[in-house]
């Protein structure tokens, strides 16, 4: 049975990118429902799926995060993984959907869960902001803060993989991925075509779609005047080959299969020192054959997951 990929709100469960993408388990209202309801919801997921990977944002209310850890502790379950990557909300929603895509493949729960850290490296996420006065999750200079108070100022911000901030002007753009990606755009209370007319072409985005702006985005970016974007690998075959090309280990503590040096279920780490991930390519097996067996990985795919 496929591992459940859970999110903490319905707007973090993006529509499926293909007909094989598994539905997300939505754990809504964790901060307002009785604890018994949360325990029951997790128990149902464990009974139905065996393992649960919860992907949640740093912008969720603290009460939600406390509830997640409380439920995991009370259930005394090493089959629940809690993963909070350093991604803004739209990028995190993209990551959750990629995991839902991979959940249909022949990946063990430990490999699927630890694949989240690997796939995070290939997501470029940012936003066009009308103000950076309350942006405290990324380094912002005093000069940029001062300019944000000038009426009409707009800023392009790359939050991941390397934070960068630029003030909007003719021809201004941000450094993008060096491999083929698709782009997702979610519009807030800001009017601009910079993301679709300038950034997407400069990043050579091979697909451009709109999504609903996650409710957590305003909290994460410090303003509702924004247009959030995320560039990602859309093809299941590429995602599958990236994951299966990483050397698999056995967790020395709980015995589950994993990739990388940290188990997402028990948090135990190994002394191995991984190398840098390889660049993805599109010369892979088709999605139709991916779950049946792993595609033959070329040397450029034979890597280990970065530490961290």
UniProtKB/TrEMBL annotation:
Residues 273-308 are annotated as: Disordered. This is Uncharacterized protein. It comes from Streptomyces lincolnensis. It comes from the Bacteria. Residues 273-299 have a biased composition (Low complexity).
